[in-house]
Design a protein that fits this description.
This protein is an all-alpha fold and 177 residues long. It folds into two domains: 122 residues, no CATH class; 44 residues, no CATH class. The protein contains nine helices and no strands. Helix 1 crosses helix 2.
Length: 177
């Protein structure tokens, strides 16, 4: 699901980039959702993105933030069909009447939001590789071997440590067990 969340986050960023470069083209894309089928498609996209974020949250860079955002987007997806076509058209008319400068400002927000969301849902590859390398390095020392076992016992015995060691009693002049 992290892949789906990544792809949809990059789609949000792509739409934001389109709005920055060509605000009228972005408005044309949004106008395609003015039908009942378009409204249901927008709701479905929101639901899929929200669910993908919820499922990808545990492996993300900010699990709590991604989980909360996923819940908000799922709620928005559920509410979208009840918003209605007429309200959607009025909102789109208001938004397009703001002019290309403000449409670009909203598009910059969408671009930054999409890129940050994509970065957040990407697994932290550097950390994963570092952990794997550390696990491989420590695995060599975790394996018991005859040489390390004897050396460890000899060190502990000579320095008065280790269970079953007779060195502490002998060093104190006590009787050996």
């Amino acid at each position: 699901m992290a892949f789906v969340a990544l792809v949809l986050s990059l789609l949000v960023a792509l739409l934001g980039a389109l709005g920055v470069v060509a605000p009228e083209r972005l408005l044309d894309v949004v106008r395609r959702f003015q039908t009942p089928a378009g409204l249901y498609a927008a709701a479905a996209i929101r639901l899929v993105l929200g669910l993908a974020l919820l499922l990808a949250a545990p492996a993300s860079r900010a699990p709590e933030a991604v989980r909360i955002l996923g819940v908000f987007i799922v709620v928005a997806g559920v509410i979208t069909p009840f918003f209605g076509i007429e309200r959607f058209r009025r909102l789109l008319e208001w938004w397009s009447a703001l002019g290309p400068g403000l449409v670009r400002a909203w598009a910059v927000f969408a671009l930054v939001f999409g890129l940050l969301l994509a970065y957040t849902v990407l697994p932290n590859w550097c950390t994963a590789q570092r952990v794997a390398a550390t696990d491989r390095a420590t695995a060599r020392f975790d394996r018991p071997s005859v040489a390390s076992g004897v050396g460890t016992w000899a060190f502990r015995a000579s320095h008065g440590g280790g269970p079953g060691s007779r060195a502490p009693d002998a060093a104190r002049g006590g009787a050996q067990r």
